[in-house]
Amino acid sequence: MVIAGIVSVSLYAGLAQCFSSVQSARHRLRATQVLTEKLEVIRLYNWDQINTPGFVPTTFTEYYQPATNGNRGIVYSGTITITAAPVEPAYSNTMRKAIMEVTWVSGVATQALSMETLISQYGVQNYIY
Question: Helical H runs in the chain?
């Protein structure tokens, strides 16, 4: 009985850890999706929009696992910062750097993820629209 009890407790602990890891990976993947989506939208803004103060929002909120009872699930809070690009002075007037950070609470721990990209005056937005 003692051996069966130890085995069953170990099995339960292993399964609980496995499900916790999967859930954590799912939340991190959703954060990556949110950041990628926001960065791609910013990369499609034209040069005047990027340089207009207030046009690009500095904060955003996204949700994950919406439920039918009105609970929106995990809340992803993010910030967007557009700064000068770390490039040669000859290109400094034609490039910007967009930094995006997102935080969320998973269990009792606050998690964070960030991404950044360069935006060019003569970039992809000129070829899409």
Answer: 2-43, 47-51, 125-128
Tell me the C-alpha distance between 102 and 112, whole Å.
6
What pTM was computed for the model? 0.77
Q: What is the per-residue pLDDT across 93-111, written as a single tens digit (0 to 9) for each? A: 999 999 999 999 987 889 9
Residue 59 in contact with residue 76, Cβ under 8 Å?
Answer: no
Q: How far apart are CA 17 and CA 10, in angstroms?
A: 11
Give yes or no for a contact between 104 and 24, defined as CB atoms under 8 angstroms apart.
Answer: no
Mean pLDDT of 34-47: 89
Neighbours of 51 (CB within 10 A): 14
User: Encoding tokens for residue 92?
Assistant: 């400094």
Q: List Cβ neighbours of 73 (8 Å cut-off, separation of 6 or more).
A: 63, 64, 65, 66, 67
Q: Token pair 């989506």 is at which residue?
A: 37
Q: What is the DSSP letter of 129?
A: -
What separation in angstroms does the CA of 50 have from each of 22, 34, 39, 82, 92? 37, 20, 12, 8, 14
pLDDT per residue over 62-74, tens digit each? Answer: 888 756 566 677 8
